[in-house]
Amino acid sequence: MRRLLIWAVIIGLLAGAVPATQAHPIDPTGYQVQLDFEALRQGTVGLVRVSGFSVAGARMRFLNRLIAFYPRGDAWYGLVAVNMEQNPNTYPLEVFVWFEDGRRQTWTHEVTVLDGEFIRQDVTLASNLGYLLEPEIDRAERARLMGIFSQVTPIHYWDGPFIKPTPGEFTSPFGAWRLYNESLWGRHTGIDMRGAMGTPMQATAAGRVVLAERMDVRGNYVLLDHGWGIYSGYAHLSEIHVTRGQVVRQGQVLGISGNTGRSSGPHIHWEMAVNGEWVDPSQFLEVSPP
Ligand SMILES: [Zn+2]
Known about the structure:
- This protein has about 290 residues and is mainly β.
- The protein is built from two helices and 23 strands.
- The protein folds into two domains: about 10-115, S-adenosyl-L-methionine-dependent methyltransferases (Single Sheet), CATH 2.20.130.20; about 120-285, Glucose Permease (Domain IIA), CATH 2.70.70.
């Protein structure tokens, strides 16, 4: 699994760079852009950090999406997420930085998207779940979730590293191509974890409950907004223990595992989205956003 703990430091180009002998010790338009990745796999997320004296804000464009930056400590942070179906290739990342005096700078970089090396799985659903193989049911549920993900909350709810929702081991990876009952192809939007019926499902990080209800594909479902465009979802629950609008702390029990929705047996499905793209949740266990 890709993930660099050490920043790959790239110094931003300075407009009218100040000569070393210049009397002023600090260039007011000096800034740094730092990436925590060298390349991004399909279905993963990367962190971009902008810092510098008098930086007043930043925004970036990647794969036709405009992405906000948020202040934290002495820097600004933004998250680039790559769709699991994005063609492996090299794409421009443009970072727009503005300064307290109103000046602006644009920093560009080529980002390579690598193949996610996703596996293929066959899934057999009970015959009474046949209606869940209608492509329209998938489409409608996806459209509803994408509508929610397009709302980006600037509040930073989480505090510290994200955690696994249950201790169970992973049984099915993110992004798998799935063929249901030899008729409907789908993609696995999260990861599955071993969990007998009745296992408590905990919040991976603090957040606000934006969905707590029965859905077609996901069954009983809880969706948390962690802020900065980061969401986590917990599917196929037998019971839901939170309500919409509630703010939950990390580790709080959101519900109890089950077998509701498009599920072929009791298990735990945990999924995460960043800036409107499904991303591999296991990445958040290795490095959490600041
Ligand atoms: Zn799953």
